[in-house]
Amino acid sequence: MAKCDRNQEMLFSADRRQFLGYTGAGMLAAVLPGCGHDDTHSTPYPQTIALGQQLIQQAVSDPSQPVAAISVAMVKGNAIVWQQAVGLASVPGKIPATPQTRFNIGSVSKLFPALAAMILVDRGLITLDTPIVKYLPTFTMLSPEYAQITTRHLLSHASGLPGTNGRNLFTFEPVAGYAADTQAELANSHLKHLPGELAVYCNDGFTMVEQIVLAVTGQSFADFVQSAILAPLKMTHSSYLTSVPASGSFSLPYVDGVQRQEFVNAYATGGLSSTPADMMNLAQMIYGGGVFEGQRIVSAAGIAQMGEDQTKNLTINPSPEWRWGLGWDTVVQPALNAAGVLGWEKDGGTAFYSTEFFVVPGSQFALLVTGNAGYNARQIAETLVLSALKEDGTISSLPAKVGTTAPPAASGPGIANSAGIYGNSDSPYQVLANADGSLQINQWAANTRGWAEVGKYQYRSDGWYWSDTDTASYRFTVVSGNDSEGHAFNYRYLMKRVAPGAGYAYLTLPVGQQLAPLAALDAVWQQRVGTQWTLTNDSPSAVPIVVLGNPPGFFATLAELPGYVLYGNEDLRYQLIVPVSDTLGGMAVKIPGNFGRDLYDIRFASPGATTLTIGSSIYARI
């Protein structure tokens, strides 16, 4: 939602800004219960459940990264074979979590706007490949190509919208109007790439589906999903928190000694509050081809569309392992693919929750695990899904884990052209080419406002650069060609490869795009270097305000890369901006995947203005 998620070390977690873990973690270990509520009776998966109970208990009890509560459910066919909650729904109240305790599932919520769109297609109200301006004639942007954006682009992260409207995204009180605010913000924004050119995780696309639903049905998105999806699926413990709930059991963040309730106001992109058992009803409908308990919710064709690989026609796609669906993160889940099984996956994170949802349609099997605070949800989910498939005979053995130790050194290609500065949506990298053919990779660090060493890497026999002390490896990829407008492009990316989750498959993403120096900053922009700016128009209940203390943003420069300014703070992260005029700073990179996800224009009303605007957020000079 920013993944409503980002976890740099895991590389692929994708839908929140920088808050996961701010849960008063040090206070949890002493008060967590040693067991949980288990609603499981007879089951065909005793070994998998025992393993899951062990993994979950370890996560909840880990003093280095305590977790208040974790809840899980698993379904086979039309029967839930395991549901259990471990830990505390309320830390100060010492109230145990139960299978009925609701968690914010973050970007797993993206499956619901995808389903809503498929239902609208079934009803003849929209088509996936019609430009959305037909349904939203008031939608506009500064880049004229906005008129090419379709609903398919919105649902497959290929729209070119800037990324995430950060204003009032996560709050401790409900804030209405987020989707309309996002549409108004986009009217003053440029596209970051042409629609359909590449796929980069984009929350704003799903938020715009809210506006389409409202325009063609007259119902708010929350009301439409409730009547068309949640009610017929009997998801009675699921809803969007559009107001303070009057009843129900909720997992509640415990922040700096205060218990609060998190509200995610971007409903379509990450706002559903649910339980694992409720989500098993959704899973049954998905692998049931749109039917749940004899009632058709959506057409079989709609479910199939959601499960189709949407990356086949992208112009720029240096990471073919990641196969976006409509709403799904991947419709060829890598660890399951390594075992010869087709699986669909969606993960989700908010400021305080982390969730993984797996569906194996051919086996009529699904699992969801969700928890409050920092833990490796993907590792648990992958481990358990593969264990279950082995236990029921779908696979004869687990796939081999991929290597995370460096192979032998080898003679590598010339790397002089690969040296330089690589920008992204997080913080820049610096690549230094050493005389012996090795690389040094540094990353810009906010605490020192300088370069911090990531590591030294040697070319190895598998074609990647490795360090003996890092399980990640790196290389460079150049993507060139002509875009849909006929313009030539040539991008060099720094690629990072990791083995996330349970370690059964490599995943690769570009983490930075090489940038060329520009003409020196003019006097107006040079005078902004070193200035600080504070956010003025977030709700007082916004998580960055309450938890981070509204950290100031600041302008800086990199001596190694003339002509750009570096702007950001602990909340926004740190991006290289291209001065377009004395009143506009533009986006500098075009990166598929996750590391170009939340980019922005910076606007000033005049060259000497003392306020600046990023999306719909307004900052005042300190």
> So what's the oligomer here?
single chain
The percentage of residues in β strands lies in 25-35%
Q: Architecture of the largest domain in CATH? A: 3-Layer(aba) Sandwich
Annotation field: number of helices: 13
CATH class bucket of the largest domain: Alpha Beta
Number of domains: 3
What is the end-to-end distance? Answer: 27 Å
Give the biggest beta sheet: 8 strands, antiparallel, barrel
Tell me the number of strands: 32
CATH superfamily of the largest domain: DD-peptidase/beta-lactamase superfamily
Shape: globular
Strand order of the largest sheet: 17-18-19-20-21-22-23-24
Description of the molecule:
The chain is α+β, with helices and mostly antiparallel strands. It folds into three domains: 384 residues, Beta-lactamase; 100 residues; 99 residues. The protein has 13 helices and 32 strands. The strands form seven sheets. The chain has an eight-stranded antiparallel barrel. The chain has an eight-stranded antiparallel beta barrel with strand order 25-26-27-28-29-30-31-32. Strands 1, 2, 3, 4, 14, 15 and 16 form a seven-stranded antiparallel β-sheet that branches. It is globular. Pfam families: Beta-lactamase (PF00144). It comes from Caballeronia grimmiae. This is Beta-lactamase.
